[in-house]
């Protein structure tokens, strides 16, 4: 049976951080292994640094030993832990096992008598530690092995995990090859860390910390532009199979206009589109990209919230987010949540990021998001963005890459369920071809020579299609427009219709 500590998560964390970001493994517990010094020394020798914790009625006291019991004379850090405060005083130097020697009363500043369940402090130590008596009686005593949270073994495990995530993301092919790159929309309150997330992803694939997107520059977020970011893999020209779309932040009064959201989702806004706070959004296509294709639309939405403020989202903001969620559910867009700023939560250190979902303050925030906004716990991913670091850290990279991988999965779910007929592709091509529209018809489909289930043949020199009547309307898949192949093709340029199980060789 596993022996459990009496320390609460918060107490353990506080001690871990206090003694230099250590991880504790419980070695000995007097109430289980016996109140015997011999037994304690037998179990706890040759274990490296240890922390001894004594539980009295109303406080926790103890000793941190930086060296092994078997070694020479050393100083010991004795501490008293009351409520949230740790008071420490150094005692010694002496041989560490002497701490448990009953016969040294008066010779040492502090000693622990297991059999009698008492701990002794001389007057000086008592005063330094703010205690009111020289003897404390206790109920239990525990000894922990203390290891660095991020030791070499863990670091090499993290590096391996990072490499496998990088490999999975680089080799990702969107579902059915329906598009070449999936578009992930980052949506969330001003200051949540959307732009920082893009910068962090870019940094990881660049191999060093970089900042392309402007971060935290405009607290109102009102002058922001819509940005669609391609990300290069390393320094070569290959771009990765996803595009991060960074929006103006949501806010109670100003910020992103809710009416813009369907346009963003359908892919009407070009890169650098200036959000129009005057609501002069032109009807139809106007300023927006002519006719969005399946590749232009959003395939996954990542809501971004800061872990240290998600609990305080206003009622208006919560309602806004719920409205957007309803819109997404209506249009079958799969969405996830990114919880940023996790590094700023109380007691969380870099080492905790290894097992971040087990940390109590993180769990509390996950539950708050779930309760307040209704997102499933399994759809919430925790990250710490690169904001002040100079160098990449595998532990941060792994969190960001894991979240990104989940977003690609979500995009695949969307593509898998996206009804092909909804793209309007096959139907429209047939309709136009059969309607006999000629001259400057919207798509110049008079240039189609023939259509079968797999190919559309065009006459030489067909112009790229510019306009689509009725836009914004049904989305046309990328293959129908075939800009490049039509203009540069031979007498009978042809392209494949977008069958779900086919991979289209089309350059963006
Ligand atoms: N400590 C910490 N700061 C962050 C994190 N993400 C963003 N920030 C900071 O939060 C502020 C707002 O970030 P920004 O990316 O501009 O938010 P946006 O408005 O959602 O694009 C900036 O000062 C960032 O440096 C994070 O994960 N941890
Ligand atoms: Mg931003």
UniProtKB/TrEMBL annotation:
Domain of life the protein comes from: Eukaryota
Region (Disordered): 487-508
All residue ranges annotated as the TLDc domain in the record: 1-147
Entries under InterPro entries matching the protein: P-loop_NTPase, TLDc_dom
Biological process according to GO: immune response
Family the UniProt entry places it in: Belongs to the IFI44 family.
Stored PANTHER family: INTERFERON-INDUCED PROTEIN 44
Record protein name field: TLDc domain-containing protein
Organism of origin: Bos mutus
Lineage per the UniProt record: Eukaryota, Metazoa, Chordata, Craniata, Vertebrata
